[in-house]
Amino acid sequence: MHEIALTTPPTPVHTFAMGRPKQFDERIQLTLVEGTTGRIDALLEDGEYRLDFIRTAIEVEIAKRSQEKPATKRGKPSLAGMFSGPNSKKR
Known about the structure:
This protein has about 90 residues and is an all-alpha fold. The chain starts with about 35 loop residues before the first helix and ends in a 23-residue tail after the last helix. The protein contains two helices and no strands.
């Protein structure tokens, strides 16, 4: 019979995780109107990616809208003011 020598596996040379570090933390699935991706592709420059184009367009729109109106808190709408005002009557 053959004898198999059991040894401990070698210690890994690298101590870092495999793959590249995460660049973007949030994901979204986006359905576009027919023909939109073709129009985007027609505008892309050499080496430019469609996803980078979309990310940039979103950031530009967010910046534009942020300048147009003051920041508001997101969440549930407040009921304050719905039941009181100049025309409200006490019951």
